[in-house]
Amino acid sequence: MDARLQRRVQRYGWDRAVDDYEQGWRAQLEPAQSLMLDMAAPRMGDRVLDVACGTGLVSFRAAALVGRGGKVVGTDISEGMIEVARRIATEQGIPHASFEHCDAEALPFADATFDAALCGLGLMYVPDPVEALREMQRTLKPGGRAAAAVWGARQGCGWAEIFPITDARVASEVCPLFFHLGTKDMLARAFLSAGFVDVRHRRISTVLHYADADEALAAVFRGGPVALAYSRFDTATRQAVHAEYLDSIAAYRVGDGYRIPGEFVIAAARAPFSEQA
Ligand SMILES: C[S@@+](CC[C@H](N)C(=O)[O-])C[C@H]1O[C@@H](n2cnc3c(N)ncnc32)[C@H](O)[C@@H]1O
């Protein structure tokens, strides 16, 4: 897929997710977000960048860790997500968290601005994840800490068939690199390619819980990487992809609901001091 199309698919696919995102994903993503925050360890007074911040689930946790003497800047390619994050910051009185609409590969910040940089479950969607990591590195102070979380390998994620099922009905792959970064040590290698040092990574297993088939379908189709393609399907195609997807997760059915296995990979690293670069 060409990079511009991929960005459009993401931007408008995630715009569609804003209303349901926190309810659908807050609990499911929490283990990866927590480990990523532990590995980057934002401290009181730090300036923190949160790339692909969505509604700010990670940004606001980072804001609590850095306190009012620190600062958190969240960025995302979806204007809808940025609007929601700004609204939450205003409603909850969190003035030291601010949000900017921008692409992860072109951050509008000066070199050496931040003490720590985070990217939770966002890098898989970026056309060139190494370029996004390079941007994180550029905007970090020397020695600054970075951490990113991605979904794991295809065979570790029970809902993985959602991509071929959707791709079969559109002209191109909707998310070509999705499982690439979660395979073996690819995320750690991407950090190294971007110029980071002291790279380490961990893989953790998880289970996605859905109360019934409607909830499992809404989670994958309503917002996110396949949502734009799905929004253009006619009724018959929607019914066909629903049936195929439910068939692909049938092994994980428990009563009316589903317990779908998944895995995350989380890597952390440091921006080099000039003598390490
Ligand atoms: C699964 S959400 C993760 C949101 C948040 N980090 C969290 O952990 O809840 C993925 C986010 O990546 C954003 N995204 C996708 N491609 C992007 C890009 N090229 N630049 C910036 N953000 C992007 C989407 O808009 C979406 O908000």
Index terms:
binds S-adenosylmethionine, eight-stranded mixed β-sheet, 277 residues, single chain, Rossmann fold, alpha/beta
Characterise the protein shown here.
The protein has 277 residues and is α/β, with parallel strands linked by helices. It has a single domain (3-154, 174-208, 262-270), classed as Rossmann fold (3-Layer(aba) Sandwich). The chain is built from 10 helices and 8 strands. The protein has helices spanning 3-15, 21-40, 57-66, 79-91, 129-139, 162-167, 186-193, 213-221, 227-231, 235-248; strands spanning 47-51, 71-76, 97-101, 114-120, 140-151, 197-210, 253-254, 257-270. Strands 1, 2, 3, 4, 5, 6, 7 and 8 form an 8-stranded mixed β-sheet that branches. The chain is globular, with a radius of gyration of 18 Å. The model has no long low-confidence stretch (mean pLDDT 95). Bound molecules: S-adenosylmethionine.
What order do the helices and strands come in, and which of them pair?
Layout: H1 3-15, H2 21-40, E1 47-51, H3 57-66, E2 71-76, H4 79-91, E3 97-101, E4 114-120, H5 129-139, E5 140-151, H6 162-167, H7 186-193, E6 197-210, H8 213-221, H9 227-231, H10 235-248, E7 253-254, E8 257-270
Parallel strand pairs: 1-2, 1-4, 2-3, 4-5
Antiparallel strand pairs: 5-8, 6-8, 7-8
Helix pairs in contact: 2-3
The structure holds S-adenosylmethionine.
Residues 7, 10, 14, 29, 33, 52-54, 57-58, 76-78, 81, 103-104, 120-122, 125-126 line the site of S-adenosylmethionine.
